[in-house]
Each structure stands twice: as structure tokens, then as C-alpha cells.
Amino acid sequence: MILRTETIRPISKALFNAFxxxxxxxxxxxxxxxxxxxxxxxxxxxxDYLLSLQDNTDTDINDADLEDxxxxxLPQAYMSWLSASINGNLGVSISNGLPVLDQVLExxxxxxxxxxxxxxxxxxxxxxxxxxxxxNTMPLLTRLINTTIxxxxxxxxxxxxxxxxxxxxxxxxxxxxxxxxxxxxFSQFILPVILLSFGSGVLVDIxxxxxxxxxxxxxEDYILCARAKGASIFKHVFKExxxxxLLNLISNRIAYLFGATIIVEQIFNWPGIGRLLWQATQxxxxxxxxxxxxxxxxxxxxxxxxxxxxxxxINPRASHEQxx
Amino acid sequence: MKRISLTAVMFLSLWSVMTVSATxxxxxxxxxxxxxxxxxxxxxxxxxxxxRLSQLMFNGLVAINERQEIEPxxxxxxxxxxxxKIFTFQLRKNVTWHPYKNRREAFSAKDVIYTVxxxxxxxxxxxxxxxxxxxxxxxxxxxxQVRFTLKNPAINPIAIFNFKVLPYHVLKNRPYLNxxxxxxxxxxxxxxxxxxxxxxxxxxxxxxxxxxxKGKPHIAKIILKPFSDNNIMNQALSFNNLDMIVSVSPRHLxxxxxxxxxxxxxxxxxxxxxxxxxxxxxxxxxxAVRKAISHAINREEMLKAFFNNQGTxxxxxxxxxxxxxxxxxxxxxxxxxxxxxxxxxxxxxxxTNGFIDSTGKLLAFRLRVPIEKNNEAAKRVILAYKxxxxxxxxxxxxxxxxxxxxxxxxxxxxxxxxxxxxxSFDDSSDISTLFHSQYNMxxxxxxxxxxxxxVDRLIKQSLSSTDxxxxxxxxxxxxxxxxxxxxxxxxxxxxxxxxYSKRLSNVRIHPYQFFxxxxxxxxx
Amino acid sequence: xxxxxxxxxDLCVRFRQENNSFIPALNHISFQxxxxxxxxxxxxxxxxxSITLLSLLxxxxxNPGVIKGSITIxxxxxxxxxxxxxxxxxxxxxxxxxxxxxxxxxxAWNKLQRKRYKDILGKHIAMIFQNSRLAFNPYYSIGKQxxxxxxxxxxxxxxxxxxxxxxxxxxxxxxxxxxIRYNNNPYGLSGGMCQRAMIAMALASEPDxxxxxxxxxxxxxTIQNDILxxxxxxxxxxxxxxxxxxxxxTIMHRLANRILVYYKGFVVEEGSKNDILAIHSxxxxxYTALLLNAESxxxxxxxxxxxxxxxQKNQLFFSACPYTSRCGFRTVRIQDKxxxxxxxxxxxxxxxxxxxWAFEK
Amino acid sequence: MNRINxxxxxxxxxxxxxxxxxxxxxxxxxxVLGSVLTAFTITQFNIIELDYEAMxxxxxxxxxxxxxxxxxxxYLGRDLFNRLLLGTHAYLLPGLMAVSISILFGALLGSLxxxxxxxxxxxxxxxxxxxxxTPRLVILLLIIAIFEANIYYVMLVIGxxxxxxxxxxxxxxxxxxxxxxxxxxxxxxxxxxxxxxxKHILWYNCRTILISQAALGMAEAVLMETSLSYLGFGVQExxxxxxNMVQAGSNYLLQxxxxxxxxxxxxxxxxxxxxxxxxEVVVKQLNKRHSL
Lengths: 324, 524, 361, 292
What we know:
The complex is a heterotetramer of chains A (324), B (524), C (361) and D (292).
Chain A: H1 5-39, H2 44-53, H3 63-71, H4 74-86, H5 100-135, H6 139-154, H7 157-172, H8 186-199, H9 202-218, H10 221-228, H11 233-268, H12 273-283, H13 286-314, H14 318-323
Helix pairs in contact in A: 1-13, 5-8, 5-9, 5-11, 5-13, 6-9, 7-8, 7-11, 8-11, 9-11, 11-12, 11-13, 12-13
Chain B: H1 2-17, E1 28-33, H2 48-57, E2 62-64, E3 70-72, E4 75-80, E5 86-91, H3 109-120, H4 130-133, E6 135-142, E7 145-150, H5 158-161, H6 168-171, E8 193-198, E9 204-208, E10 221-226, H7 230-238, E11 244-245, H8 253-258, E12 262-267, E13 271-277, H9 287-296, H10 299-307, E14 311-313, H11 336-345, E15 349-351, E16 354-356, E17 364-370, H12 376-392, E18 395-401, H13 403-412, E19 418-424, H14 432-435, H15 453-464, H16 468-485, E20 488-494, E21 496-501, E22 504-505, E23 522-523
Parallel strand pairs in B: 1-10, 1-11, 17-18, 17-19
Antiparallel strand pairs in B: 2-3, 4-5, 5-7, 6-7, 8-9, 9-10, 11-21, 12-21, 13-19, 13-20, 14-20, 15-16, 22-23
Helix pairs in contact in B: 9-11, 15-16
Chain D: H1 12-44, H2 80-87, H3 89-112, H4 118-133, H5 136-146, H6 151-179, H7 182-188, H8 193-205, H9 207-231, H10 242-250, H11 259-291
């Protein structure tokens, strides 16, 4: 890709816009979530939360401080939270007293491994299906597979997980769990990743999107032109038919996948953010929960943004689309 | 296209080939808990998993053995004054703390004194502060001798002196202890195992303490793995991912019993389950109503259907294994006709919808219980309870609440009619906080607002009495009165089971200090 | 005399409709293109001009598509009949009857076609598309797309060479500042420039036969003129054979040697440029006459098109002249024939053939 | 040019097959959704008295057709068939609430973009992105932690989070209409603005969007409740919901007790399938109309 000055400017403008709206969304989300905590019934929630932001080693909190915190109005409370969190202090967890940020970051990374492998597997296993469907070999088989994977995604995820474990244990006497957190190996990935890509609809999504987009693009005039000159169709279909829908898919689906990991991680004992979220909900550990929500939001936003970045870079028209 | 699908197939097969079987280290004990431990020190958390973990790393001055006798632990011997108020402890000299900043400090009297001071500090947050409330003062006689002076005489000194001792040299910077203290997540103790590390998901690794004063433990490493799903934990055990489950869910008992690879071992935690009735409710204030409810539920059948008969039905407020339990009092039998008769005699009228009181209002109660995902046994009991009451014509509305909210509603605000809960006891069999009217307050244990002058008097007598036999008779009377009064419907004391792989040998599970003999356990 | 570069014989194409009837898109099309000859195909939209081109290129994927005929491409290197063994893939019953039914193994046929055309497309035949802006891949620069076809068809060329050559071709089609335009994306060019780039791309692979599908449609009059001049120049210099499809007689006038007139999938008239474009000649198919008149009276194309829907409803397609409903020539003498028999192509002079009963001798 | 060149894959018999499949799909939707509605009405108005709480301690976790239990019993010996019928209550009204919130406010917000307010468009886009930024399940967990585990809160959240999606779709549709000069033409015809919005835009041009979104919203409501049931925050026992039935049954799945969880799981699957197919059929109809 050759970037020349006249293209750099609109691209950077488009990227700046995307970045700006990402930041805006994160702030707005944090405010929304914070106000939810603020209006929550029961006075202790907010207090606990703001207390957890106080530096824990040196200062002692006296009653006057407590009073102040209880009296703080929403903007004040939010500002104090914001200034703390921008400095990297998301408070400490109520249940175990550990700093929120450390816990959340590491676990988010673990979850990301899971999500990325699920996307990858979904992608890899959808390619042969898409190829089958696009080339129109065996239309009935394609339809059958299509229906099956669709039905799989409609089953309750946790039930499917249990079924998968049941099949793998009673049928193959095989039971990998995320047991060795310290040295994760591939065997632990298999079941959760299969579940996440087949059960949560990732595969169906990728398949349907790619299928319809490729079919649409194949009907474009420029593909006919490429055919007429004897060029490889794949190369010409790739950008509009495969890369763009995939980027779009990733930005749309990643949040949903984070949701699905809450269940998958529970079942496969995966040390990730999903399990933490559930635990925090059970303990009403508001600092932890809020930290987790904000960090996941940032991760998802980053994924969106990088998808947009790639889109803008590989699509010379993107910056023009922005202007319209 | 073809090339891509080919690579996909290759990648997938590669993926499945790279399945490496999980290797379990030969001399490592991995045990599973359903709730991940909050903090790791013995005081700031009240979760059973945290407490069990602290037994591996800390010692008290004295300990209780399986026969409920006092044993020396960190204190090698002690003397008691005549009025049972002054205790002088001779401490062991060969005890060292786990390494802290690469140094092993010796255990001495100042650690004991500092622990008491720390726990008595008003800012210290701990569920076990009660234990220290009776201590008037602690003095250091010399490096290895401490003298305790109590406010009131104690019959059962264990209740006080089995507290876990904390290191002075680690904690000296702050006068109080809470969860934010670094110590809470990096504990230093004197026990058989040394804290190695904890990852963010609370998988905790402990290694053997070579210089443990009772001798070096046989098992080199202990790992705690928290699980979020009971069924999965059970699967992990049967597929050798775990060596031990601390508490087996009732629905897996029969399965594990049939499996020759595992040993099931019962241990009693001195606890029982009950339904509690709020005395502030107009209807429940009447003894006959409570009695009627107690007669309406079939405890034998529930115990059989839900828990494979693994427990004992109880009749009174003491744990069945304790000396205070009065075996002469029999539990209320299942007799729905009697219940109906009792209710009718109180003037309630039976209609097709159920009983109505004199004003024509339906007899209905609100049962508030916490949501506990992994405790489905509790759910069964509650639902069966509801059905039994429905059969005689009392309506129960179940209100599932989040645990923290439930605690608030029950213990602080007392907004409930009926609740289902469980008490666990230490050996003192002290029920004063449960039924004495003095404890009827926010966050008090007498959350049902029970008040009976006779019970109050007996509790006082029992506390001030110094003679064990006398105390016993008083408690037996107390048992009888409370059993008759039915402030709770006492259900049963469930036998808890631990399941462990036959690779472990020499396992002796202490009834209420689970890991007390852990240094003797072996793994082949 | 050398053999013609392209020979099409009796080409028939059908499209299946949702209600399982068939549209006869092309019927008995036969023509040939000699070396250095420009064949023009003229007709209203929907008459099958573009479909002819697609079938020539083997790109017709519709079901059942080509059902009959032969297309022979004869270059210096080889001679190939691209519709060989077609009858093994197609089974036709009630051919050219109202209840005609056709089964064709399209998957296998298309696969075979792809294999056959692999060495032909681009190398021997290149195509200039109607709307060049849509025909360029919008996500690559035009230069890249031109050098792509050079790389594909010039053995032994590398990227650097291809780029130089592409720039040369851009210059050749009179593109200003070709080295800058090389990096431009199609949407950044004007319609005329796109068309030039398109021509450059088609020429870059140095084909034997150039097919131009309405090369000037949608362009301004002046630019049209420029493009035509360019094509004329190329035709003269490169010694190419060409097929030009258009509904515009001006193009034919300037480029074509021979002209086919299409109507509803039939060739209704065939002849040399002079035969067809002679407005005042009486030897014309009524449709050609209509077109010629429309041209001279500046009638808008749309008016000719209006009858399109009406004509499609004609069920008795092969048992009547397709043009009967609009014909102004019907005389009592031939009326019966017009309604009941499909006229053949009747040789009226050495170079001219007309599909009309009126010229039957 | 390529328009005419679309490959039609089907032979003659495939054409017929496809038509039959389309008919079967519609029939399937009608049967499934109809039986759900029937189950709801039967139980709502007590046409047949069903006891979902009665426990049969003698037959616990039995397979279908034993001891007079049509679909067998669950872990407490309760009749699965009765609970399955009564489980519809957990979804129908709350789900309708969620859907009506999202459709009503979404349509309103979307049609406000008619007035060409660029800022409003931006707000809608941003809030769509906001909803894409947080997993719905996470929002639900947050709400549960802060307030309480209540199915109506859950549905409220689902409803609200779907508003931007609907608004976005409607505003896109309005854009297309604007490009077709439809709106200018109507205004030039002096069509009253409320008739333009409600009749011409929302009813004639957006009803397919609204119907398909409603179907998808219902499906999502069912899916979310199921997920929450596993986490322990769904509809609480003894009130039956299909989600908590699957959850309770799957506790025994690893021991080989497949029935009690797979029956409600399959029920969920078939209803979700019906909703999705309904949405698909509606969208297909829309596309067909626009291609002509």
C-alpha cells in the first residue's frame, strides 16, 4: 500500500473521527454505569466504591471524609472517580482487597485468547462451507449443513456445553479442563473454543455474511471484467467480499462473544473476565464489576477501532465515504 | 478456494494433534472448592474456603482434636487460675515464621500479644472479633510466656485460645487489619504450608514448610482450584484433574460411592439447617402456628429423597454431636392432620384457597432465601417446604434474593416472615446470641426477634456457670424449652463428605478443622 | 484465404424463468470475424447483444445458457471449438416448441468452460466493458489492474516491467500524466479517462480479438468522439480484429466493416457497412429501416424500447416472425407466412442477408 | 450487464422443492408460535388446571411417558409437561414488554430523523456503537448487581438496548426513501406530517423492519433469560421458565440423565428457530417487493 500525502490527510481525518468517537463512547459509558451505581438503592454501594479508591496504605479515612463521600453529588463523585481511574486506579475489590486493574487486565487477556481462537476456528471452518455454497456444488448438502449449524446456535449455550462434555467424557473418555493456568496447552482450548465458535453463532454469522457478500460481489461488473481478462477471481473478490464483511463482523460480534464467554468460562473453569464478572455480581463487588465493564468496553472499542483502521487502510474509498 | 479449505483442514488436524495430556505432579495435592477464597489470612474473610486455606498456613495457641479435647499447639503448656480468668501460656521455642523478605523470624510472645491487639482494634474488620471480646488484657512475661486476663470466666477456653496467631514483624506497620492490607493476600504463618502464589483467578499454590515444628509435611505442594460449577468439579475429580473435593454435593454422592478410585469420608461440621420464623409477624408470633408448620413437613422423606439419608434429623438448637444436645427431646413428627387441627383450634378457617384468619385474610408468608447457584439442595428443601405447607393450606411465597441483599434484609432490617439458613458452631455450643433478647438488634444473630424471659435467664445461668455438669443440665433444659417453642423449625444436621483419590493415604480429616493433620497425609 | 479468426455457428441460448418456462435469448446466431475485420452488432437493449459477447467469452453462467451451436476460435497458435461436446451436457425435448424443456448439467459444463477458456481469456480475446467505472475493481488502482493483466499474459514479465509497460499503454491511449494516473483509483477518474484506461487494459495483454461492448455509452459527446478516434486509430495501427456492440449507428459508421442487426435474439439482417447503413436503400429488414429512420430523425432510444415488454409475451415464438407485431411491411401476400412461419436469413446480395419473408424470391 | 447473468442453481425439481420449503417454513412458524400462544392462554385463563409444583417423590427424573407424566419429571419429581406449558409465562409478557419498548421508541426516534437533523443521526449512530461496546449480558449482570434479579428489569434492559438498532434501521430506510424523492413528493402533495410518518413511512415502508425486529427481539429475550438462568439470575423457582428448567435438568446431564434438560432445550431451540424464520421470511418478502 502506497500512502501519498493526498491520501494520508483524509485517512488520518477518518481515523481521528473514529478514535474520537471511541473515546467519547467510553466516557459516556463510564458515566452511565457510574450513575447507575449512584442511583442504586442502598447507600453503601457508592460509598464502598469511592472508599475503595482511597489509597490503601498510608491514609486513614476519618468520619468526616466518609460524610463527604456520602454527600457528594453525581458530577463530583464522577469526577473523583474519573481522576482516579485516569491515573490507573480503579479501586480495590471489596471481596479480596486486591487492586481491580491488575486482576481485570490479566483475566481480560485470558478471555481474549479464547475469543480470538473462537473467531479463528469459526473462520477456518466456515471457509470450506462458504466455498461449497458459493461454487454451488452439492446445494442440498450445503443447505443441510447450514441448517444444522444454525440450529446449534439456537440451543442454550450451557446446555450444549454440558452435552459436549458428556459426549467427550462418555464417548471418548477425554476431558480437558483449563486446569494448569500457569502453562496453558492446546488441549484446554478445544472444547471451549469449539463451543464458542459453533454454539454461540459465530460460525453461522461468518458463514452467512461471507456467503451473501461473496455472492453479491460475484455479481458485480468488475468481477466479470476480471474474469474476462483471465485474472484470479479470489484476489478481486477478497477485499469487498471477504475482508470487509469480516472486519464488520468482528466489530459487531466481539461484544457478543464477551457475553458468551461468561457462560463458557464458568463451565470450563477458564480463568477469564467472564468468570470474574459473574463472581463480582454474586459478591456485589461493585468496584470489580465496574472495572471489568470499563476494561471490556475499552478492549471491545479497541477491536472496533483496529477493524476500522484496517478498513480505512485497505479501502481507498473509505475516507471519501466519511465525507459524504 | 480449494487451497484455503485444504489449509483449514490441516490446521484443524494440527490443532487436535497438539493435545497434550495434563500431567499431574506426583507429590502435589490439588483440591477443589466451589467458592473461590476472598482473602487468604484467617481473619478478614468469613468464607469457608478462606478459613480452610488458613488452616494450612496458621496455627493457634491451642487446638482441638477429633475427640473435642484441648491439645497444645503453639503453646506447649498452660496454667489456669482458680477463678478461670487468668491463663498463662508457655510458648514453643522451636517455631519459626514462614520466610518474609527471605528471613525466617522466630515465633515469640510478642506475636501473640500483637495479634490480640490487632484484632481488638476498632478499625479491624473481621467476623471473628467476638472471640477477642472477652480478653481483658494480655501481658508478656518473657519472650516465651504470655498471660491472658479475661473479663468473664470461661468454661471452654478453646473457644478463645484457638485463634490463629499473626506475625508481629510483618504487620507492625499498621495497628489494624482489613482486606486492603497486603497481608490479606500474602499471608505469613507458622503452619505446615507456605504461601507460594495466587493467580488472578485465585488458584492458590502452597509449598511444604520444611521447618514445621510438627515435622516436615509429606506432600510437597498443595494447590487450591476454585470451580464455578459443581458438576464440572465432580467431572474434574473423576478425570484425575483433582485429588480431592472438600465438600461433595449430595447429588454426586451415589456416583462417587460407586467409584472404586475414590474414598468418601464423612466429617461433621457441627452445623444444622432450619427454617426461622420472624416473631414480628402477627401469625408467626403464635406458637401453635409455628408448631403446626413444623408438623406439616415430612423431614424424613426430604432427607431420603434429597440427601440419600446422609444426615440426622434434629430437635433443638444445639448441634447433635455436642455435649449440650438433649437426646431425650424428639423431633416433631410428620402429622398434617395435627397441623390442621392446631390451626383450626386457633380460629383459622379452612377454605378452598387455604386457611384464612378472622379478618378473612389468607394465611400467607414470605420466605426469603438467597440465590445460590451451586446449592441446589437448598432449593429443593425450600420448594418441598412450600409444597408441604400448601398441602395443609398455608401459602408460602418464595422470594429469591441476592446473597448480600438477603443478608441485609434478614440480619439488619428483619424484613421477612420465614427464612431458610444454616448455623455452624464451634465447640462452645453457645446459643446465647441466637435466642437471647439482648441480641435482637440490627446485625444481631437473634434476627427473628425472639424473646422469652425464661430462655434469657437460662442462657445467663449457663454462661456464668463454671461447672460443666451444671452447664450441661441447663443446656438440656434450654434445648427442651426451645424445641417446644419452635422459634425455628429445626431440620437436620447434614453429614458433609470429602471425596479424595485413593492415591492419597494416611488421610485423617478433622471434624471441624479440616486440614489439621495435613502434615501427615501422603500421596503415592 | 486464411480461416476466419472467430466462427460462430447456430448459437442458441436460453434462460430459465421462475415459472420454469424458457426465454429464448439467442437463436441461430451465426457469424464470423476475419482477421483485421471489425464486426458491428446493433440492436435495441435486450436484443441479446451482450449475451452474445458473454457466450463468446464463456462467461455466461445463467441456467441453462448456451444449449446449441459452436464457437471456433482460430489463432496462429491453436484452434479451438469452445462448445465442443456441448450436446453431452444438454438434453432438449420439444425443441423450439411452446412446451420446450431443457436440462443442462451447468456445474460440470461451467467447469469445463473455465478450463477451456483459461488460455483464451485476455490472451486471445479481450473486452472493453460498457460502464468502465464499474468494471474496474474499485479497491485497486487502475495501474495495478493493467499491470495485472500484463503479468498474466506476458510470459516472463516481472512487476517492474509490467508497470513500465502499463504506463506505456496509458500513454498510448492518450492519458495525460500516465505515471500519476497509474496510482489513481477508478473512482478518482472521469468517465472518459476510465474508458481510456479500460481500453489500455484490454490492449495491454495484446489480444487477437478485441470486444467492445457499447464503448461510448454514458459519455459526453466530445469524449465519445475522442474515444471513437482512439479506437479508430488503434484499429488501424494494431491490426486488430474487433467486435463492437452498440445501438448507435455513428460508431458503426466509423468503425465497423460488417454489421449484424439483432432483434429479440435473432439476427434479422447481416451485411457490409455500406449495405446496412444505406438509409435510402429499399433492401432492408423493416426493423433496420426503423432504426435507421430513428437515427436520422434523432428519435430517442427509449421510444424504440417501449415495445420490449409487449414482445416478450409472444408465446408462439418460433412459429412466426418475431417482428410481426410491429411490422409495417406486412402485405396481404405474405401475412399468412409472417404469422405462421419463422423466416430464414435470405441472401439478397453477395454481402447481405435479411430475415424477412418479403425478400423471399 | 451482470444482472442477467445470475446463476440459477436449481433444476426443475428444485424449483418445486424450494417452493415447498418456503411453505413449510411458514407453516412451521405458525404451528410453533401458535402452540406457544395456546399454551399461554390455556394456563393464563385456567382452562385446564395444571399443577407445576406438585412433587412426585416416587418418580424423580423419569423419562417421558412414565407414571402418567407425558414428558417425564424433573429432579423434584415435578411434571415437565406442565412446567413446559407454564414456562411460556416467563417469556410472553416480559418479552412483549421488551419488544414493545424497543419497537415503539426505536420507531419514534428513527422517524425523527425525517427532519434531517444531522445531530440526531449522529446520536443514533453513537448509541448503536455504545450498545455494541458492552455485551448485553454484562449490562444485565451490572443491573442485577446494583438492583435485583428480576425478569422485568432484564427485559427492560433488553428493550432499551435494542432501541438504537431499530432507530438505525428506520433512519436508513428513510434515507433510501429520501433518495427516491419519496418524501419530497409527499410533502409536495401536502400530506400531513403525521400521516406521512405513521402511514407512509412506518406502516407502508418499515413494517417489515418492525416485524422482523420484533421477532428477533423476542428471540433475544428468550436467549438472555436462558443464559441468566444458568448464572442463577433468571426466573427463580418455583416459577417455571424454560431456562431454569434446562439449568436444573443439566445438573444431571453428566450423570446420563438427558431427558429433563433436553426437552426444554429443544423447546427453546424450536421457538427461537420460529422467530428467526419469521424474521427471515418477512425480510425475504421485503426484498422480493423491492426487486420488482
